């Protein structure tokens, strides 16, 4: 699909057809696109829980109760659901893992280039940790870059998607033991194909006009 047409037609799906499943090869393609999402200094502070079975989706839906119960059906009727998680800190060990992966991927022409990358990335982390004092927010911003990439890629692939921030974070963090893994849940994304009952599919897009959104310098 054309990129502009995708931007104008994709939307947050409100109801899924539980009988329609994303072909496995196409879903794996989406995961690979997600893995290649951009992030500041390639920090990649994310981890993604992938729910394909009904049992796995039910575990996610267990955090969609009370004020969030309206989101449960989206997860349960989706083809697949992802939980986007963000690291709660950046350790020296993780920075070293990133650096060695860069090296294995052939990104350094010599040892000097490797050490420059080491200093640059750790410098960014310490700047956000100690000077701006918003390292967690900076990391979560990167996770949302990955979210945007996935949503647009799904639209290009003809797959419907729903990002959801309406869930009990404490429950889902506990259900999957995220705190013990140095992670926290940031956003849930249901993927699949819309139901004929989805009212949002029939509504026109609404965006502010370009003169409000853009200042042309």
**Main pleated sheet:** 4 strands, antiparallel
Radius of gyration: 19 Å
CATH class of the domain at 3-91 and 140-193: Alpha Beta
Number of strands: 4
Helix content: 40-55%
Helix segment tally? 9
Q: Could you report the average pLDDT, rounded to the nearest whole number?
A: 97
Q: Look at the helices and sheets and give the structural class.
A: alpha+beta
Instruction: Give the strand line-up of the largest sheet.
Output: 1-2-4-3
Q: Oligomerization state of this entry?
A: single chain
What do you see in this structure?
The protein is of the alpha+beta class and 217 residues long. The chain has a domain at 3-91 and 140-193: 3-Layer(aba) Sandwich (NADH Oxidase). Helix content is 46%, strand content 13%. It has nine helices and four strands. The protein has a four-stranded antiparallel beta sheet with strand order 1-2-4-3, sandwiched between helices. It is globular, with a radius of gyration of 19 Å.
Features:
NADP; alpha+beta; Nitroreductase; oxidoreductase; globular; NADH Oxidase; Nitroreductase domain-containing protein; about 220 residues; four-stranded antiparallel β-sheet
What's this model, at a glance?
The chain is an alpha+beta fold. The chain is built from nine helices and four strands, in the order ααβααβαααβαβα. Belongs to the nitroreductase family.
